[in-house]
Specification:
By secondary structure, the chain is of the alpha+beta class. The chain is 44% helix and 20% strand. The protein has a 6-stranded mixed β-sheet. The chain has a 5-stranded mixed β-sheet with strand order 5-4-7-2-8. The longest helix has 22 residues, at 161-182. The chain is globular and about 65 Å long.
Length: 295
Amino acid sequence: MNDTFSDVLTALGTSSVRGTSLEAGGAWALSFDGRERLKFVAVVKGQCWLVLSDRPPEALNEGDVILLSDTSYTVTSDPGLDASDGMELYAFPGHNTVRIGKQCDTVMIGGGSGFAAGCGSFVLDALPKFLKIQPRSPSARSIASTLAALKDEADAERLGGSLVAARLADILVVEAIRAYVATHPEDKLGWISALADPRLAKVIRLMHEDVARRWTIEALAREVGMSRSALTLRFSRRVGRPPLDYLTRWRMILAQRELARGRGVPEVAELVGYASQSAFAQAFKRTMGRTPRGQ
């Protein structure tokens, strides 16, 4: 797939957050901190509650699949219970299943996708903090089966397991984006929702396909039959930043990937469209918060 999603996924250095499961009965409540990652949870048996700080408790039933983006949360048998630290229960490597209580009323499997340092916000900022995926949707089925496979890989420690887990993480991210787009987020902010607009999608695609080109607003506007001011306003409203600001951010993510692969600063600067190393270094530091030589 030679498309924008695939370009982004490749550049962001997706990695797997290990597959885990929770088997619980009786009264229980576990809290988990927020991290720069996408977290997926599928309820495969029973029911429970999801508690987030900025919304009412959400009832989860068998078959439900949820997406959490860079936010802390609590899963519990009763929203009124005080939660203990769930992170501690999974702290040790290989400890992928937690059992609470004498009986098993609720079973959940979880996992997720992390990103290379400094890259996660490119996707996380464009997705909601919480998304409940329709249980009968293709994405929900795919995510649930992928989580089960991720859990199996984490438990079995088979040959090539880390590579398989990384590919499963890619699938999770793609399905998360598909599920989000299926909710028709035309009024939401971010480059993902902007892809629903044919003209903005073309602008984004053009910048991705020829990232080193010295793009101007005039050139982009001409490509999609809009005025400079109309394109800038429409893009900024939908994406949250002007077109050339988006392009700079994308260039720096690509640059970070190439620097991590061992390419030198002069080569990377030219690769992402900078004739001047100093201009590239300034843009990199402004966008990524550090110098390219500190990569």
